[in-house]
Design goal:
There is one protein chain. The protein is α+β, with helices and mostly antiparallel strands and 298 residues long. The protein is 44% helix and 20% strand. The strands form 4 sheets. A 4-stranded antiparallel β-sheet has the order 7-10-9-8. It has a 3-stranded antiparallel β-sheet with strand order 1-2-5. A hairpin with a 6-residue loop joins strand 1 and strand 2.
Length: 298
């Protein structure tokens, strides 16, 4: 379709592109055991792909694709395939993170007009959207105060917290999630790409509360580190995982039967999937034991 590209503002033929990069969905589908996706808004509908819109021209989509390829090949795939070492990055990582935050903010501006934001924070969100856009176009050397923070996650082996949901490892290992978050003074865009969370700040009142997570302009590393996060973010994260439980409860009996039938059809390969690994880790964390194959036969 023809229209005005939301990034370069030129009238061109627009190309359908993802909000969250497609390689994330491909990984989840390929390691799921069923080959389908379900989303929180419509949990009873199986889909093959994530949200896509005709927002950008082919040239701008191509620019984003280059940064996505760098992140996927240098950080995402090595991590999900078991490489726990630190990964070095160059200037492409900040551009990738800003591109994701900009797309997710675009989505929430269009779909809800940030109805949960105060008028002051809405104004700041619109300014942030413009700043990120100018950075992506090379018109700014950095995104000003609207920093990008990247949090890598893996299985939670143990914890001493009281508010950890029963699905925490499934949420970490198997979910894609987005949100536009606003408090009294702080606001950010939340983009969860499987085991990676990108926080794009609209308003960041206490930068010292975030240590070890900032994506730098030219280079740095991602991986095991001592991260410092605000307690409020930990509570928010646990709340997002809890919401996933509520979504699961909305799946109808008919759809649950379809899921079970699909799993039984792929029973020989199911045990090696990431889906079962995530479930096993949650059961272990809760002190439960996965039923063995002989138990299932009985």
């Amino acid at each position: 379709m023809n229209g005005t590209c939301l990034l370069c503002d030129e009238k061109k033929e627009l190309r359908e592109g993802h909000v969250i990069p497609s390689f994330v969905y491909k990984w989840i589908k390929g390691t799921s055991g069923c080959g389908y996706l379900r989303f929180g808004e419509t949990p009873n509908k199986r889909v093959q792909d994530g949200l896509k819109y005709y927002w950008l021209c082919d040239d701008c989509e191509g620019i984003f694709s280059n940064w996505e390829r760098e992140f996927a090949n240098n950080i995402f795939y090595p991590t999900v395939n078991g490489d726990v070492s630190k990964k070095r990055y160059a200037d492409w990582l900040l551009k990738f993170c800003v591109s994701v935050s900009w797309r997710v903010l675009t989505l929430y501006l269009q779909e809800s007009n940030l109805e949960n934001f105060s008028n002051e924070l809405k104004e700041k969100a619109n300014r942030t959207h413009q700043v990120w856009k100018e950075f992506l176009l090379g018109k700014r050397p950095h995104p000003d105060t609207h920093e990008q923070h990247l949090l890598p996650f893996d299985v939670i082996d143990n914890h001493t917290l009281d508010n950890v949901p029963e699905n925490i490892n499934r949420y970490i290992l198997r979910s894609v999630d987005t949100d536009a978050v606003a408090g009294e003074r702080m606001a950010f865009i939340y983009s969860k790409l499987e085991r990676f969370i990108i926080i794009g700040f609209i308003e960041m009142p206490n930068p010292r509360n975030w240590d070890g997570t900032k994506v730098h302009i030219n280079h740095g590393s991602v991986g095991p580190n001592n991260y410092t996060l605000p307690v409020e973010f930990s509570d928010y994260f646990m709340g997002q995982a809890s919401k996933a439980i509520e979504v699961q409860k909305k799946i109808s009996n008919k759809q649950n039967m379809i899921i079970e039938k699909t799993f039984l059809k792929n029973i020989d390969t199911l045990a090696a999937t990431e889906t079962i690994r995530a479930l096993s880790e949650d059961m272990r964390l809760a002190g439960k034991v996965m039923p063995s194959e002989s138990d299932a036969d009985e």
